[in-house]
Amino acid sequence: MTMAETILLPSRLDVKAAPGLHKTLSPMDGDVVLDASGVTHIGTQCLQVILACKQKLDAANTTLRLENLSTDCTEQLALFGLDSNFSTETAT
């Protein structure tokens, strides 16, 4: 069993963060964990990048997981109706 690549997400996942997030996630081909402990804002552009990566990894029988979700992150995923689309672990 291989270890998942863990990526600490920035606090603001907005339009300015989308190109960097895409550059980080697009080459991933194994299990990926996104640490969302510091996320305070999620924009649609970054959600699109994350969803595209998840779709690619799902097709390759690997996983993308969100861990340590901040309260803001959890609430914003729910607002977009995406709270059940990810394997998640909320920060305690």
If you had to describe this structure to a student in words, what would you say it looks like?
- With 92 residues, the chain is an alpha/beta fold.
- The protein is built from 3 helices and 6 strands.
- The protein has a single domain, classed as Transcription Regulator spoIIAA, CATH 3.30.750.24.
- 36% of the residues lie in helices and 24% in strands.
- The strands form 2 sheets. The protein has a 4-stranded parallel β-sheet with strand order 1-3-5-6. A two-stranded parallel sheet has the order 2-4.
- Helix 1 runs parallel beside helix 2.
How do the strands and helices of this protein lay out in sequence?
Blueprint lengths: L4 E4 L3 E2 L4 H8 L6 E4 L5 E2 L1 H16 L4 E6 L1 H9 L7 E4 L2
Parallel strand pairs: 1-3, 2-4, 3-5, 5-6
Task: Produce a short descriptive summary.
With 92 residues, the protein is an alpha/beta fold.
CATH architecture: 2-Layer Sandwich
Shape: globular
Structural class by SSE content: alpha/beta
State the end-to-end distance.
Answer: 27 Å
What's the number of helices? Answer: 3
Strand content: 15-25%
Helical content (DSSP H or I, runs of 4+): 25-40%
CATH fold naming:
Transcription Regulator spoIIAA
Q: Write out the CATH superfamily name.
A: STAS domain
Tell me the domain tally.
1
What's the CATH C level?
Answer: Alpha Beta
Number of strands: 6
Radius of gyration: 12 Å
Summarize model confidence as the mean pLDDT: 90
